[in-house]
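Take a record.
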Amino acid sequence: MPSQETQADRRWVLERVDDVSIVQLYADGFSSLSLRDKILVWHLYQAALAGRDIYYDQRYAHNLEMRAVLEAVLTHGADVAPPVLAEIRRYTKLFWINTGAYNNVTARKFLLALTPRELSDAVVAAARAGAEVPHRTGETLEGMVQRLAPLFFDATVDPTLTNKTPGGDRDILQASANNLYLDVTMAEVERFPERYGLNSRLVGLPSGQLVEEVYRVGAKYDADIRRIVHHLADAVAFATPAMAAALRALIRFYETGEEADRIAYDIAWVRDQASTVDTINGFIEVYMDPRGTKGAWEGIVYYVHAEKTRKMQTLATHAQWFEDHMPWEARFRKPQVAGVTATAIEVVVETGDSGPMTPMGINLPNDQAIRERYGSKSVSLTNVNEAYEFSTPEGLRTEFSWSEAEAARGERWGAFAQELTTGMHEVIGHGSGRMAAAVTAPPHLLLKEQYSAIEESRADLVALYFLPDAKLVELELVPAGQQEEVVQAEFEYFVRNALVQLRRVREGAQLEEDHMRNRQMIVNWLRAHTSAIDVRRRDGKTYFVMTDAHVFRDGVGRLLAEVQRIKGEGDYAAAKALFEQHGVHFDPALRDEIVRRVDALELPSYTAFVMPRLQPRMGADGEIVDVEISYPCDLETQMLEYSAFTREGHSVPTPTDTDRTVA
């Protein structure tokens, strides 16, 4: 492993694109894996790349065509006017980072700062230089650009990717531009006997009938899924018995799309608790769906970081103690916590819903019934956390700290506290609690568009509540003499972050992203119901100041009890009221102030990552003798390589009626 000095000297920040920082992700432990595990990772890596275009298509129906046009110009741009090419390059990088023309944090559409004529001239010049530009039969290149122009240039056409709070009587599905539904309203969905909730697109036909386009072999995304399955099948021979069983179950689910096979896969995946290498591949998180049901495709490949796993395993080992001491009603506590496992990992690749913008921790499966009966697996992405630590400008902390002492605490304990609370969020947060005995429906169906924000709030609150507990000192997770400082640093950071996160939402006056809603709700609720947070002004600047850690924790406990009750009872009305009052809306004047402050210091709003690159080395007999890892340190190079990979005999088909499952 590199020394701390070597780490600091590494090339972390590669470039800035508008307010996005592009950072290289490193996976230092890969070279120490056995050859068998390296080959396993290689096959899983290819499976992760093979599904990338599924997520592009899920996010927006025109994404793949738009991307192909942009990449054609970038790769054949010698005769394109330099200012025009520079703007296309800027826009395309944002398009890659956000998997389309919608900001991944705000869900708002961003535009290409050219005229349609300038784009048309660039496309024609690229075609003359040999680019294969996609266009319909009988359509000229100029006609193609004219057809796509509203998608690139008009902010009023499909303005919001996911709109959970459209206002008035507007329907949340009709107000959302994503490709999970087509010509469907919430009222129609509620009357429809949905069979493939997680893994289908729901389409309304002119006849008024609804059909499910199922994501499986032989149906929606057939070519992509077949290629994923091919690489997963190649991986089986190199996997441990438990992982091989999980991979076979995943292949079966991809082949049938049936709920029973999805459940069988989730159980098999949870039961594999000892493999060094693992993968997450499939339709997983439901944040993009305004009703919180449809899974967005993602692919992640990783291996266990043994040295850093101890903390995570300690939390998992003592999960029952934390469950027994939750500040919510006893009826929501699990009498016997089952199958909770936790590891620290290093990611090799993240695609789809997980990359280039990546989570810091993961807890799966999301199925509440499986969590309660079989447990869950939590992972902390240590190399992602490390990359954030080395790439985040110090000014982001100092500018919004009320005092030098607060900034110093953050510098000393911030990374430590955030890594610990991320682990607690995943292991004893998402992994805790149960539904009320009389409730049989899954919570995401009961809480609808509020579910994801409620669940993220619940996990954050669990971590905040237990951070000051003496149990963490007893478990040697926090230094005995430093717990008060660690708690102070984390509470200050959490409060500060609710203010600082507004820099990411540069338009409008409401939050759409569930994690952002969660953080704002918690801080605003504490402001309204406790004396733990002061809002102060100095030199024309606003600060959120955490003033009393004991009062803060007491408030967190009270709010956590209510959030668990809302989830456990499926209380949709209470969930909606909680976020409408505290989590959705913000003062745009305050946001404008925050943006001015970060821009003056040239601070980024968010971060995207360039992944490691793998390449097999073949022996004379044609067998793999090693898998080598390298670091591209260039977003454009990597994205074009990924697109080339998925173009080789690989496309996203347009489904016909025979591809659809009709209920």
Q: What stands out?
A: Residues 649-663 have pLDDT under 50 and may be disordered. The CA atoms of residues 288 and 334 lie 30 Å apart.
